[in-house]
Amino acid sequence: MPDLPLFRHYIDGSFQPSRSGQRAPVRAPATGETYAEVALGGASEVDAAARAAKAALRGAWGSMSPDQRWDLLERVADGIEARFDDFARAESRDTGKPLSLARAVDVPRAPANFQNYARLARSVGGDAWEQHLAGGGRALHYTRHRPVGVVGVIVPWNLPLLLLTWKVAPALAMGNTVVAKPSEETPATATLLAEVFDRVGVPPGVFNVVHGAAQAGEALVSHAEVAAITFTGSTATGQRIQAASAPGLRKLSFELGGKNPSLVFADADFDAALEGTVRSVFTNCGQVCLCSERVYVEAPMYDRFVEALVARAKALRPGLPDDPTTQLGPLISEEHRRKVLGAYERARAEGAQVLCGGGAPRLAGPAAGGTFVEPTVLAGLSDASDTNQHEIFGPVCHVAPFSTEAEALQRANETRYGLCAAIWTRDLSRAHRVAAGIEAGIVWVNTWNLRELRAPFGGVKLSGSGREGGLWSLKFGTETQAVSIRL
Ligand code: NAD
């Protein structure tokens, strides 16, 4: 293999290869081309990073004033903005997502996360109580916020920079230090972020990146110096992490998989519901935890809505990330494509009608080597079918008609997951009733994926535990200490 660039770990302020020399190829999913390699870390790199993070906590970072830390985080935000184009190109090459999407969503959210948490953390205060003692005299009780310590951050490949910064920024804003493990599929923007930290003068050890696969993640979640783990990824991995981290009684935050419903009522604004549903099913090639995979449409609107949804799905243009006409990128990898095509096959075997798609497209030119699949709409399966119970994480949904509000609600909740739901209706009372009945952490009415960084984010059931966003993320990075003084 010709000499390829290597994405190295960033540990204690220095970029370094793996001690074992282990590395893996990094492919651009839109073309299949191997364009770089990534160092594969393990217990040794995690140990070095966790020790460096602990030392920084007790040293340079811990002795800075909060204002100095927040100023540095704002400089990180400026540093990302100064390299906006590098980040956007790296993210779209690693994930295959259209460059326009990386530029509109993924990259702007990274500086916004640092700015938002630096600002929000400045407003975090404590409580105080004055107590009159029975025998005379008084006492003052108050709370202080202490950092939890070294926070382990593990993120997936679908929104690599957005999710990484969403977790790193609040942890650092509360005075913690971080060891981050990005997905082995998408190491580029985490490495660029480490370069920004390095350049703006954040002390060594405050932010560390250990690249690698499950082995590195396992070492991180069981390391004695790691006090908290914030994880976004699949439910199966979340369950493994919970078990592995149990002996250390670590604080855990889990954002996991989903099988999200969209409920389209016959009184909805047809065009808005259609547009929103197309976005909610096919954005990022269906590789967003918030995507709708189950679409329920009230019977009077069903035929018209499904016909229009299928037409829109068929018209989506797959292609290379930097082609401005591309609407649909590839899946992340050949392995994931096999999984999604397997899900299409399983749907057929269960008796699904395939209303469009159901296979892999033949593309010409460099995209011929990409891991593309066809946008797919399925129908005719029961809610209990495997297809309707398991997250597929591709550009696919199952559509089904319903007759009453009660039926829609009952079927929406017929899942082990509970991340989010979308409701499309013009009836305000119904919107509130259905939102209240949905077993999910996030409900959108007449919109999808409308995010407010101060609002809580997270799921119920197998979609996760804990909440992120706003003050919830800051609290996760905080131990509240009670101080009592006899006056
Ligand atoms: P994954 O669980 O396979 O991997 C996620 C991360 O965990 C990667 O960095 C991986 O290397 C690491 N990992 C794997 N095994 C590990 C182990 N045993 N111990 C520690 N770390 C380990 O998930 P994925 O395939 O990268 O991402 C897709 C999944 O993420 C989907 O299920 C999707 O719904 C979910 N997701 C959820 C949210 C959310 O906010 N709820 C957001 C994005 C993605």
The residue-averaged pLDDT reads: 98
Bound molecule kinds, no repeats: nicotinamide-adenine-dinucleotide
Distance between the termini: 73 Å
Radius of gyration: 24 Å
- Helices, by number, come to 16
Envelope shape = globular
In terms of DSSP E residues, the strand content is: 15-25%
**Would you identify the CATH architecture of the largest domain?**
3-Layer(aba) Sandwich
By CATH, the superfamily of the largest domain comes out as Aldehyde Dehydrogenase, Chain A, domain 1
Structural class label = alpha/beta
Low-confidence region ranges: none
Helicity, as a percent range: 25-40%
Overall domain count = 2
**Number of strand segments:** 23
Biggest sheet: strands, sense, closure? Answer: 7 strands, mixed
Enter the CATH topology name of the largest domain: Aldehyde Dehydrogenase, Chain A, domain 1
CATH class of the largest domain: Alpha Beta
- Biggest sheet strand order reads 15-16-17-14-13-19-20
Characterise this structure.
The protein contains 16 helices and 23 strands. It is α/β, with parallel strands linked by helices and 487 residues long. It has two domains: 6-256 and 463-486, Aldehyde Dehydrogenase, Chain A, domain 1 (3-Layer(aba) Sandwich), CATH 3.40.605.10; 260-452, Aldehyde Dehydrogenase, Chain A, domain 2 (3-Layer(aba) Sandwich). The strands form six sheets. A seven-stranded mixed beta sheet has the order 15-16-17-14-13-19-20, with helices on both faces. The structure holds nicotinamide-adenine-dinucleotide. The site of nicotinamide-adenine-dinucleotide has 29 residues, from α8 and α9.
